[in-house]
Amino acid sequence: MTWRGIITYLAAAAAVVYSSPTNQCFNCNGVPAQEDCDVITHCGDNESCYVRKSTQYNGQALFESGCFSSQSCQVLNTISGIGKREAGLTNCYECCKTGNNTYPCNSQLCGTPPSRERKCFSCSDITKPENCETIVPCSEDSICYTGSYRHPFSHEIRYNMGCQHKDTCSVFQALGHSHVTSSNNGDYTQVSHCNDCCNDDYCNIRLCGIPKKVKPVFTYKPNNSTLNPGLEGVIMVCKVEPSSNATLHWEFHGASGGTGLPSHVQVVKAPNNVNLTIFPAYRADMGEYICVATNSVGTSKTSAFLRPKAR
């Protein structure tokens, strides 16, 4: 029997043991990484959270998650070689049980060890690096990089940001990082030509004379979500670059005109980030959620919309 046949059989058997919902599990279908899933749902007392990782014929990995019968999960754990019967399809099928009022346990299933890749800002030919909003992971043999040059026609200072091989960065260091001209602004220097590297996450936002003090720069933004009101919820994540020294909070503009965060929304703050858990999400919770980050230089905002699924 193929894994599809096994899952169909077990899902049918699970229907007779469903009970009232207690567990919270991430519930997504076809996301490229399990950490990209932000929709949560209630599962029954006799259900567990699960994640299935599959590899498509083009080599792309996709993750599916949700609720599954705990009894069926035990059966799956005893089936040796599941996923190997159809080469290139299911690579992993794992279950876990979430206790009440805890973070969904299937956030880490079918995963890989924590990546040691550096996360760096990546933008090309820009005049204001603090406006760069693209972040990319660098390979283990690369680190963060920023280069600047003076445009031959406009004479503006332009910046390229991203990843650079460590050997190339060593050459930059041996040759000297930059050619610097003085500036009247005490916060930064004007760099007419520069190639520089650094070895911390998001650190290239501070290279090549980029102002040391800038408005908060987001490194993780919340995603738009479409949910079944009263049945599903969402976790919204908002993070800023660590050296921003920003304070963060959430604002809400309801689709029906309401303002102020709904009373049942949970806000969890940590250094440089603030998470919002809305579970379950009701129709009154639909609208725009705005993450606001403020430091001594100014305020930055990013937002996501919560919408109901069509009936």
Automatic annotation (TrEMBL):
PROSITE patterns: IG_LIKE
Domain Ig-like: 216-307
Keywords, in A-Z order: Signal
Coiled coil, from the record: none
Range of residues in the leader sequence: 1-19
Keyword Protein biosynthesis: no
Name of the featured protein: Hemicentin-1-like
Species annotation: Crassostrea virginica
